[in-house]
Design a protein that fits this description.
This protein is mainly β. It has 1 helix and 13 strands; from the N terminus they run αβββββββββββββ. The strands form 2 sheets. A 7-stranded antiparallel beta sheet has the order 2-5-12-7-8-10-11, with no helix packed on it. β10 and β11 form a beta hairpin. It is globular and about 60 Å long.
C-alpha cells in the first residue's frame, strides 16, 4: 500500500470512528443504570447518616443480601434500621427534630449527565413508610461562596409487600434547603448530578403511610435514569 493510500485509509477509519461516537452521543440509550445493587461492592459507593451524629439514637445499616427473591437478580440492597425520637443523655446538641436516617451516595467522579433523561426509576420493596429521594446537583442556585450541593427532593411511598417499580419525573423533584422546600421558581440542572440519597423521617410523609418511631426496611434492586418519550 502506498503512503498516500495509507494516509487516506487512516483518515477514513478515523472519520468512521468519529461518526459512531457522535451517533451514540446524540442518541443515548432510553435508560441507564445509576446504581445496581447486585454486588457487595455497591455498598462502598454509599455512606450512612442519622440523627446519632447529633445525639439522637436512630441507627441504620446497608448491606447486600443474596437471599432476596423477586428482584432482577438474587442480590439486592437492604437499607434498614431503627428510628428513635429519643436523645442521648447529656448530649451537647440541640437539634429541633430527631428520628431520621439516610443513605447517601459518595460523590461521583466529577458528575453524571442525565440531561437526556426525564425520569428516575427505582425497583423497591418497602415497609409502608414514606422515603425521600434526593438528587444532588452541582451548586449553581445558592449564593457564591456556599459549598453545599443543590438538593432536589421527592417523596417515595412504597407499600409493604411485593416489589414495585416507581417512576419519578425529574420535574417532580422540588428544590430544598436543609429539608425545607424553597419557595422559588427554579429548575434542576440534570447535566450536573453529583450524588443521590434515600432517607426517611419518623414523622411526616404521604397520607396513609406508616409513621412514628420503630424499625424500617427498604429493599433496593436498582436505580435508573429513563427517557419516557
Amino acid at each position: 500500500m502506498s503512503r498516500l493510500r495509507a494516509l487516506w485509509q487512516a483518515s477514513v477509519n478515523a472519520t468512521k470512528r468519529a461518526v459512531v461516537w457522535n451517533s451514540e452521543d446524540l442518541f443515548p440509550p432510553s435508560e441507564r443504570y445509576i446504581f445496581n445493587f447486585n454486588s457487595k461492592d455497591e455498598v462502598k459507593k454509599w455512606h450512612l447518616y442519622s440523627d446519632s451524629e447529633y445525639g439522637g439514637l436512630s441507627s441504620a445499616s446497608l448491606e447486600i443480601t443474596d437471599s432476596v427473591s423477586g428482584g432482577d437478580t438474587s442480590s439486592a440492597g437492604v437499607f434498614s434500621g431503627n428510628l428513635s425520637l429519643d436523645m442521648s443523655e447529656g448530649s451537647p446538641w440541640r437539634i429541633r427534630r430527631s428520628g431520621f436516617c439516610g443513605m447517601r451516595s459518595k460523590k461521583f467522579d466529577g458528575y453524571i449527565d442525565l440531561d437526556s433523561y426525564d425520569t428516575i426509576a427505582m425497583k423497591l420493596r418497602g415497609d409502608g413508610r414514606t422515603y425521600i429521594s434526593t438528587i444532588y446537583t452541582e451548586n449553581w442556585v445558592n449564593s457564591p461562596g456556599q459549598e453545599e450541593d443543590n438538593s432536589w427532593q421527592a417523596f417515595v411511598y412504597v407499600p409493604q409487600g411485593s416489589w414495585r417499580i416507581l417512576k419519578i419525573p425529574l420535574d417532580s423533584y422540588l428544590p430544598t434547603w436543609k429539608g425545607n422546600v424553597i419557595e422559588a421558581n427554579m429548575e434542576m440542572n440534570p447535566s450536573r448530578v453529583v450524588g443521590m440519597s434515600l432517607s426517611l423521617n419518623a414523622e411526616g410523609g404521604v397520607p396513609g403511610a406508616k409513621t412514628g418511631p420503630g424499625d424500617f426496611r427498604l429493599d433496593v434492586d436498582w436505580i435508573k435514569a429513563m427517557r419516557s418519550l
